[in-house]
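Field: sequence (string)
Field: structure_tokens (string)

Example rows 1 and 2, in order.
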Amino acid sequence: MNSSLYGDKALFAAWFVAFTSSLMVLFIGEVLGQMPCLLCWYQRIFMLPLPIILGLGLWLGDEKVGRYGLALSLFGAGFALYHIAIYFGMLPETIQPCTATGPSCTDKSQIFFGIPIPLLSLFSFALIAGLSNLSLKE
């Protein structure tokens, strides 16, 4: 199998996950009316540019665009891991950023289809990072 074709398939899959995740973020916020917490906003900062960057890379045939997908998704995954630690009570309340203003990072609204939103976010970022890395293999 041609390695460029293999890279293109991985990059397309990374774009698809990023696009779908971005649509879900907008659906949860705009259609369901769920206000994002502070950590959700930080994760959105790293998720929402991914479909645009990866899509442009696919369209222009940039074989190295996966490195941008990898970088953005790793930073987003870091915020998601931090959010998960707060959600499951692994961090003390004194270092929780969502208690001052806005929605809580740990309340029942942080669940979508029975799964905590930070966990869904981490899964998406990890999948995008893995696929972006695969697209860079020659």
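Row 2 begins here:
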Amino acid sequence: MEISDITWYGHASFKLVDHVSGNTIYYIDPYNFPNTLSFLEPADLLFITHAHPDHLSPNDIAKLVKTETVFVAPPDCLAKLAVNNEKVSVSPNKEYQVKNVKFKTIAAYNTNPARLQAHPKVNNWVGYIFYVNGGKVYHAGDTDFTDEMKLLKGENLDIAMLPIGGPQYVMDVEEAIQAANEISAKITIPMHYKALLGEGYRQAEERFKRGVTNSRVEILPQIS
């Protein structure tokens, strides 16, 4: 799996290109695509982690849908999608195969007492591990550093995408450093922080790069 196969559109929004399966296009949590972004390849598979509007954005999803697009998401997310496309309902900590594409779900929720209501465990929201281009790519969704994530070191992940923006929604930088070092993916990509941190985002990036020692941190350019 190469970094060049990943595009970051900001926040938790990514595109993956799966060359092994025939240039299959995956999108994850598409959100806030600027009107100046003139070309977006349509999605073969569109993954949603949870039902918050900065992850489940109908306006942005509409820019990516074709007749063959398959939606993959927890059931409460699928219920909000007014589309006639094929829908695959997922729940945490299970393995799936859709159109010869294999992936796994990982529970995504808050454990910090200050933000338990942002992403309750009972909602059964998810992150995803994608088996793509001969590698494993983990998108954590919105989450704290959970017990399920502590087991991911055994997955030998190639790439982990972790939220670092805190404070009331997801892991902050220090918590994300702990998670990244425990997971020990070959590469860790921070996400879900610029909009939350404003002008402080560069300081967060630098702190994350200094603190993560068991993985190589890559700051992706944001496409806009």
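free_text_note (row 2): Residues 95 and 111 are 24 Å apart (CA to CA).
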